[in-house]
Protein 1
Amino acid sequence: MNVPPTGYVDLQVNGYGGVDFNSDDLTAEGLHAACLAMQRDGVAAALATVITDTVERMTHRLQRLADLRERDGLARSILVGLHIEGPFISPEPGFVGAHPRDAVRPADHEVMQRLLDAAGGLTRIVTLAPEADPGQRVTRRLVEQGVLVSAGHSNASLDQLDAAIDAGLSMWTHLGNGCPMQLHRHDNPIQRALARADRLWLCFIADGVHVDFPALGNYLRLGGDRAIVVTDAMAAAGLGPGRHRIARWELDVGDDLAVWAPDRSHLVGSAMTMARARIHLSERLGLTDERIAALTRDHALAALRSSGHPDLRPPAASSGPASRDSA
């Protein structure tokens, strides 16, 4: 799982280039095309992300991704693992976000193991809500298996967050999202996570929509050497503004590359690329090239290594683009 010495590392990619990683009908050609599109846009490594659904559908999608990746050299090069986001998240309105509420459930070790088995040893991150895992049994077992546990879609109290951190939780997924637009101005999950910035990797979507740029600048400063930029890309990523049909929805993607549900009640991910995030970080926040490289690559690699994957390291020299294996 060597990562080329240049390029972006994106820990949260739900789809790309018109291809949905959460589709039951994902094809080998589709996965290859998505990886080609990511490579074209400068992505060196990414985690394909499967979100909340029924356990049966999630296991099918994880196994499909793992199987198709195994048969494709480019996919093995770009997709260095899988990120399972849910189903152990908060069902509260606002916190559940775009995840189907009827598929959300309390943390369960047997269900978690089914998902891990379906992913074929490729799971690198699991996002869950600490309050959905009382006693932190699932969190502890995941950490023991070398999986990085991340809070997300959560309204965990500070005590619940601290208990999860003590059990090994070490990240917060797309902080500033997966929560209602209206929150208590001081006591809210964003402030709780920032209060533990010395113990958490903090991930942010740098499109200016999921988090406004002034707030993003503040959060990145507080995150310091543990801040990470992700895209939360969905299938429209890399296609640019316009109307795109994704699964059952016709989605309008604006110039800001934000993707809203048809009724505009909530965001459903981003169509932003990491290259666009880099422009935002430079032009809107005035960050240096060195800081941008840390946010879009180095810190993500460090987070993955911290969970027991030291093989995620740059080789002495890039071997160039990988080619697709013949089936």
Protein 2
Amino acid sequence: MYANPSQTARTAPDPRVTATPAEFYSGGNRIAAVVYTPTTDTLPGSQRPGVVVCNGMRGVKEWIVPPFGEYFAAAGYTAVVFDHRGLGESDGERGRVIPQEQVEDVRNAITFLAERDDVDAERIVLWGTSFGGANAISAAAADSRAKAVVTQVAFGDWGRVMRETLSEPAYRTLIAEIDADRSERIRTGKSKHVSPDLMLDNDESRAAKKRSARDTGQRPELTFTVESVERSFDYRPELVAAQIAPRPLLVIGSAVDQVIPFSECQSLYDHALEPKELQSMNIGHYDICEPPGSDDAAQIAVDFFAPVAFPD
């Protein structure tokens, strides 16, 4: 058993962890990834558990997920983080962010880990935050190779999130964009690009976007196709959550989350079957992804995964 890593907030790379660029393919697209492994392995030559780390809606591998990749590696895992197709350094149509395609990327990340010599294919788990948590639910429901799942601040029904969190004018604007684009697509075969800010119209998301430049650097403004927005409206991972059983599921939510109401986490939990757990952290949607909040959340995940990752 590996010792738990320190819960001290980190602002520099963890010297106990090695981060190595990697790539794999998904749907014919080259997927850019980073693999985190322990720098000093207490059990050299042995296979470790693997964890696929699933990022949020507009996350890239340099934002949000590095602290979790480091934390899992320091706890004895091989962790992979990656840019979904069409995002970051991965190939694919820019701005095409289709939930079902992202789930395929997650499943191919499982295969990537399972084929590594340092990973025990029977001890691969999924972790995801926000939209990535929804993807982890959907991927595990379809893929029995995922032996346990932890989600944080995820949702059960994205269309419901939009109806409940957007102001009435903002919601009407978004629906109008979808209706107009649907008509345009049948005439031209093309979908207009819009800012994901239309879906993330809240103070937490705006503040997090401003902070992201320190991690990702100056990049072109991220836009999504309106078709992607429409497909996201239909995304309901709660409908498949029961298929994860009998593998364990932990759902972490927050009552102070302005982006994903705690009721969404409750709904995921209610739709799932045992064994399952529901926990609440009194922390913001993005604060849970930055030290020290990310260390606390990651330790909860490490503790939950332990019986699967490091069985006695």
